[in-house]
Amino acid sequence: MRTYLVVIDESPESEIALRFAARRAVKTGGSVEILALIPTPDFVQWGGVMATIEAEAHQRAEALVTGAAGTLLEESGLKPSITVLKGDGPKIIREMIRDNPEIAALVLGAAATGAPGALVSHFAGADAGALTVPLMIIPGSLDSEAIDRLS
Known about the structure:
Layout: E1 3-8, H1 12-28, E2 31-38, H2 47-76, E3 81-86, H3 89-99, E4 103-110, H4 118-124, E5 135-139, H5 144-150
Parallel strand pairs: 1-2, 1-4, 2-3, 4-5
Organism: Sphingomonas japonica
Protein name: Nucleotide-binding universal stress UspA family protein
Domain UspA: 2-138
């Protein structure tokens, strides 16, 4: 089954990317994998503080993907797979694509204004030729009607 891997965060462009991926999955009989990345925190001298910071980041990421999954199910009827991982985003994404042959495309949202975001910059630049699946960059300036029309 064709799976669209979507990386989400708290940005509006990730919601747009998720909507696009869901629409494509519905039209192609595919599925959606939602990935939330937890950045590795800077070193904090006290272990208890560090553990609290990591736990709070993980809870925020889980809440984010749970909300996104609920929206996706409500709007498209698709029940996505959910993954929450901590570490280097590009490395995690490459490993997920390598380990899951069902992933047919990496779907990322680009900010409507300013820089496109770290993952978009990375995969459209340094790793563009090394990806084994197409990269779909969804402009953050698209509204729902445009996404529905284009997907």
